[in-house]
Design a protein that fits this description.
The two termini are about 25 Å apart. Helix 4 packs parallel to helix 5 (about 145-160). The radius of gyration is 19 Å and the shape is globular. The protein is built from ten helices and seven strands. Helices cover about 50% and strands about 10% of the residues. By secondary structure, it is of the alpha/beta class. It has a single domain (about 5-220), classed as NAD(P)-binding Rossmann-like Domain (Rossmann fold), CATH 3.40.50.720.
Amino acid sequence: MKTILITGASSGIGCALAKIYAENSHNLVLVARREEKLKDLKEELEKKHSISVIIEVMDLSKKENLEILSLKYKNIDVLINNAGLGQYGKFDSYNLETDISMINLNILTPIILTKFFAKSMKSGSKIINIASTAGFQPVPLMAIYSATKSFIVDFTLAIQREYSNINISLFCPGETQTEFQQVAKRPKSSALRGYIPTAEEVARYFYHSEQSNKSFVIYGTYNKLLIFISRFFNKRILAYFLSKRNLKEKVLSAVLMIFLVVSATFIPLENV
């Protein structure tokens, strides 16, 4: 039985991960700002499963809370840096305080938690940073969010090579059915793939990937193909392309059809 600490655990992928780890008899430390949701989740999981669930209600954008968390829990087997914030709209329409909170929560929080926890984790422990497929291209109308996720992608891939005693992994979901759409005020994508996965589906895929010790995981064939294709384009072209929703749909439809045909033979979709 391991102890798993999950940030941003009150909803979405974080909440779904908590339920899946509980199903598999792991103790949990769940961290988020919304006390009632955490209390309800704790009650549900302890009632269904013979595990311990500790909840920590705190604002993870504040450094002092991160230090308290790391000092309090020194025997964590898996740290999942899942907490994040998004905002949709033109850059000059953003509230500055929201911008700063997004940068703090999406970048500084996982950096600080990784630094603090890595020092006390025993050999074989794991740190998982949840980024996004938005981290692989500049996304107009989500400029700060995509930039913060790009930072996490590069940061995680870099420090993977610096630690030999603990496993550091990067998990990247794409568009998912969570509260994120409402919080970020982002309109629904027309989703060429025709289906947007639930948080539970994404979380279960990530859980099995973690159990298989995968260090770089992208959810879904559509997202893997999209990221593979983006490697061949200059970022300025990508930004222009992503700003043209109608053009994007038409071009991607044609390109993805071609890549779907050849993917099984020529494209390494599974990451290790």
